[in-house]
Amino acid sequence: MKHIFLLFTSIVLLFTACTQNKTNNITEADIQRIADSLATCSTDDNPYANTKNYELSEGEIKSLADNIKKIDPNLPTIGILVYNGVLMTEVTAPVDVFSKYSEDGKQLFNVITIAEKYNMLTCEEGLKIFPDYTFENAPDLNIIIVPSTYDMSEVVKNKNLVSFLQKQNEKTDYTVSNCAGAYLMGASGIADGKKIVTYIGGGKELQKIYPNLKVQDDSKVSYVEDGKFMSSNGNLATYISSLELLEKLSSKKHREYVESHLYIDRLRDWK
After folding, report:
1. pLDDT tens, residue by residue, 52-79
2. What is the pTM of this model?
3. Quick one: DSSP state of residue 140?
4. For the ranges 2-16, 25-39, 134-148, 186-200, which has the lowest average pLDDT?
5. Domain boundary pick from 25, 47, 68
6. 81, 144 in Cβ contact below 8 A?
7. Of the residues 68, 85, 102, which one is the last residue of a structural domain?
């Protein structure tokens, strides 16, 4: 029965993939890997997980298979990297900002999350995330966003992650880091010679480890641009980098429209 269900799941995924533009880069082999990985999803190697040995039910597998996020080839694609222990706000802030439709009700961007493989990931704050795409089947990105974890030591050692970032950066219009995501920028070498800022209090260590970066004073700087590279202190400051980029990709008017939906004015005036 399980094999029959997996076959059915693969067929569903194949049909879904065939109705999408080729820019999705999903092959039949990718589809089989998706079906297999969904069927065996486990968080045994997740030190942040609240529940170990988690296995998706057949209903959950079908739900995920039926809802793989589609890519509109006519829109810019924004990819947000995710990994275990990622800071929740640094994922949700760009999703929040770039997923808002225009004032006349039009979608402006594809917004997707990308992980090394299909698995249930857990944010530092406990929120569970299931990625939209993996390093193997992710489309080419116009913008890649690099969030942080409280401990980046293992993240920067992930050769597959570093390689994926390097390859995507060759094609991106903008590459953005937030908080300690700057350490992954340093490890990849893609921002060498560029201005960058990290979390408050982390600049000196970042500069010491990655001397080729031009690390800015994080006690004074919340957000910095240098060419196509952008960075922020992270956490709620992720909204700063997201909104600044939004204006570049759309218009000041649309930024103000999105800010009105986020009640940014209430946050600015809050006492």
Report:
1. 334 556 566 556 655 678 899 999 999 9
2. 0.78
3. P
4. 2-16
5. 68
6. yes
7. 68
